[in-house]
Design brief:
The structure holds 2 protein chains of 2 kinds.
Chain A: H1 2-32, H2 37-41, H3 47-60, H4 65-78, H5 82-95, H6 97-106, H7 113-135, H8 176-215, H9 219-225, H10 231-242, H11 249-254, H12 261-273, H13 276-281, H14 288-312
Chain B: H1 9-26, H2 31-34, H3 38-62, H4 72-91, H5 98-105, E1 138-139, H6 142-148, E2 163-171, E3 177-184, E4 192-199, E5 210-218, H7 224-236, E6 257-265, E7 273-275
Parallel strand pairs in B: 1-2, 3-7, 4-6
Antiparallel strand pairs in B: 2-3, 2-5, 3-4, 5-6
Helix pairs in contact in B: 1-3, 1-4
Classes of the chains: A mainly alpha, B alpha/beta.
């Protein structure tokens, strides 16, 4: 029981500042950017270019998995096209410089860090592109739990959160101070509203992950990993259970003895895109059915990539 | 303007969360402070202070701006977050129980040491350590010992000296005793056991207990036939197994074993974790 509390509390405390920073950053961007910004982003009309823009954003912005959920929520509300938003959401943990550097360092001992780095990036980006194209195709808002995706209103406050702020209906403010106060309050409300809905899922996730770390026997995964065919499946399963940050998972898997390159790659690409922590975090963004589909798709693609790689590599 | 009392619930919870985040991570000995990597701790404390500041402004603004009553769901979420953090900080133990450590022993897969950094340890000058004639054991950092055990042969600074190191007694799947520590990368949820195999222990210490062991690293005598086999495989294979950490090769590199001369049980130290760092000097742990 004590182990459970310690694990849950530390996972929660680890993710909390990132969730808050995501909320604050999103609110700031929301407040500072002119409302014409989304149109500027949508300039790349083709889906492929939109996905590229999302991935570029994931590389540039210093955000990873805990903080990108509130950020993407707010950006969707602002009118960012789903293809950009989804590809940003999935690529941010994988392509951010910290993650790339740690992958390189972790595999430096094997003598071929560039191969691992390139494969992780290549396979990861392929999976992300497929996911982004699929999630943004046709059915429109069907996949998102946030209702305001296509909120066409150009008003500066489109958070659609049935929110408590009265900024938009009290009419003209009495004086300048009143206006300033309302502006600041709107910012605080935007930041904290995103924070609380994501952090609540983080709390559930922390409890789940802690329970899993205690009750699931990880030794059986290690035994499975020695088998060449089952190894990628076991590696993906281990990645989902451990719920590691994308910036440290390379160190963990790099030192596992006797695990094939394909299985390591499956671990590295599937882990940042989906695990049991992200399953809960995504609840504030996607519908539940969609999340399960995402999970299945990520698993399948990562394992398939690993098998192909195993067959190609000597 | 008069606002509903309920409007104060979110900002007050928020200030509590911020305050706890800052306090927990700034109190040196707190279990949850030990559970985070120092860099993350500073980040968490900073964000906590920021949250506290925002919550103060928020409370102040409630007096000025008229606000709709927050939904029941939102109130519940805020209170749950604050309550969980409060409970966690109150009840969290300092470290894992021996039972959980036993469970983690199965994952002693990182036994081949830190992923990088062994090379520098080969050429430390022996003068920076007390002379070997002294005979008393030299206290050494666990990670230094671990990295050294990955070297091909004994470095000169280790010759003739007895070392003392502290760690947890763990057992792998195939019942091999290890002196191990939990290496933390980011927070304690990703702590992984790393260890060195122990040899020469007559009576078995209890699994999951903290030990202080004295002894020295022993490298296995290289079997010439085996080396010849390796070389043959190398010639035949497309990918030569030249690197000792080649992962496609299931053969483990010949890691050193810690030959124990003396051991005794010790109480667990305040912070049980080993941080991922780049200290190469064989200095004693503070």
């Amino acid at each position: 029981m004590n182990d459970f509390i310690l694990l849950a509390a530390s996972i929660f405390l680890e993710g909390l500042p990132f969730a808050l920073m995501g909320g604050v950053l999103a609110a700031t961007v929301d407040a500072l950017l002119p409302s014409g910004f989304p149109e500027w982003v949508t300039r790349p009309r083709t889906k492929i270019l939109q996905v590229g823009a999302g991935i570029l954003g994931g590389f540039i912005l210093p955000i990873c998995e805990c903080s990108n959920v509130p950020f993407v929520r707010r950006m969707l509300a602002k009118g960012l096209p789903p293809a950009v938003a989804v590809s940003f959401l999935f690529s941010a943990p994988l392509v951010n410089p910290v993650c790339l550097a740690s992958t390189y360092l972790a595999f430096a001992g094997t003598g071929k860090p560039w191969m691992f780095l390139g494969l992780r990036l290549g396979v990861g980006l392929c999976i992300i592109s497929i996911l982004a194209l699929w999630l943004s195709s046709g059915k429109g808002t069907g996949v998102f739990a946030v209702s305001e995706v296509h909120a066409g209103d150009s008003g500066h406050h489109s958070c659609g959160c049935s929110c408590g702020c009265s900024g938009h209906n009290t009419g003209t403010p009495q004086n300048m101070w009143q206006a300033l106060a309302q502006g600041v309050f709107r910012w605080i409300h935007a930041a904290t509203h995103d924070f609380v809905s994501v952090a609540f899922y983080l709390l559930i996730a922390a409890l789940c992950v802690a329970a899993m770390q205690i009750f699931i026997d990880r030794a059986s995964f290690l035994a499975l990993m020695q088998n060449r065919v089952a190894a990628p499946v076991a590696a993906v399963g281990l990645a989902y259970i451990l719920c590691l940050c994308s910036s440290v998972d390379a160190f963990v898997i790099a030192a596992f003895p006797g695990v094939s390159t394909g299985a390591k790659l499956a671990f590295l690409t599937a882990g940042p895109l989906f695990d049991f922590k992200l399953f809960w975090l995504y609840q504030s963004l996607f519908k539940r059915g969609t999340i399960i589909k995402i999970g299945l798709a990520v698993t399948f693609l990562a394992v398939a990539a690993a098998w192909v790689l195993e067959a190609c590599l000597p | 303007m008069k606002n509903n009392r309920l409007c104060y619930l979110p900002p007050i919870s928020f200030s509590l969360i911020g305050m706890l985040m800052a306090c927990l991570t700034l109190i040196p000995g707190h279990p949850l402070a030990n559970a985070l990597h120092p860099v993350l701790r500073i980040f968490c404390a900073g964000v906590g202070l920021l949250a506290f500041g925002i919550s103060i402004v928020w409370i102040a603004l409630i007096e000025v701006v008229s606000i709709k009553v927050p939904s029941l769901k939102e109130c519940f979420q805020w209170v749950a977050l604050a309550a969980f953090l409060l409970c966690g900080s109150w009840f969290a133990p300092n470290q894992f129980s021996p039972e959980h450590l036993k469970r983690m022993g199965a994952l002693l897969a990182l036994q081949n040491g830190m992923p990088f950094g062994a090379e520098q340890l080969g050429n430390i000058s022996p003068e920076c350590l007390p002379s070997p004639e002294d005979g008393s054991p030299v206290e050494i950092r666990f990670e230094t010992l671990l990295r050294t055990s990955m070297l091909e042969q004994m470095p000169t600074w280790m010759e003739g000296r007895v070392f003392k190191v502290r760690g947890i007694c763990m057992m792998t799947e195939n019942k091999e005793l290890h002196i191990a520590r939990l290496m933390m990368f980011c927070c304690m949820a990703d702590a992984m056991p790393v260890g060195i195999r122990m040899a020469g222990i007559s009576e078995t210490p209890a699994e999951g207990q903290w030990l202080e062991v004295e002894g020295s690293l022993k490298w296995p005598v290289k079997d010439l036939n085996k080396i010849a086999e390796y070389l043959k495989e190398d010639e035949a294979d497309v990918a030569p197994a030249s690197s000792p950490k080649n992962t496609n090769n299931n053969e483990q590199p010949p890691a050193a074993v810690f030959e124990v001369k003396k051991w005794h049980q010790i109480p667990p130290p305040p912070s049980p974790f080993l941080l991922m760092n780049n200290t190469y000097l064989p200095l004693p742990e503070s």
